[in-house]
Amino acid sequence: MAETVLVIGAGIAGLNVALALAPTGRAITLLERDAPPPTGDAEQAFFDWNRRGVGHLRHSHAFLARLRTIIKDQHPKLLEQLLAAGCREIGFADMLPEALKASYAPLPGDRDMAVLTSRRTTLELVIRRYVEALPGVTIQSGVTVRNLILETLEEGQFRVVGVNGDLEGEAGEWRADLIIDAAGRNSPAPEQLAEAGAGVVEEAEDCGILYFTRHYRLLEGQGEPPRTKAPGTGDLGFIKYGLFPGDNRCFSITLAVPEIEMEIRQNIVRPEIFDRICALLPGIAPWTDPATAEPISKVFGMGDLRSRWRSFVTSDQRATLGFFAVGDSLIRTNPLYGRGCSFAAIEAQILGQVLRQVGEPSARARLYDMRVRDELTVYYDNMRSQDRAAVRRALQTRDPNHTPSLRGRLTQSFINDGVRIAVRSDIDLLRAAMRDFHMIDPPGAWLKRPANMAKVMGWWARGKRRNAELYPPPLGPDRRAMMAELGIEETAAAAQ
Ligand SMILES: Cc1cc2nc3c(=O)[nH]c(=O)nc-3n(C[C@H](O)[C@H](O)[C@H](O)COP(=O)(O)OP(=O)(O)OC[C@H]3O[C@@H](n4cnc5c(N)ncnc54)[C@H](O)[C@@H]3O)c2cc1C
Question: What is the CATH number for 319?
Answer without folding.
Answer: 3.50.50.60
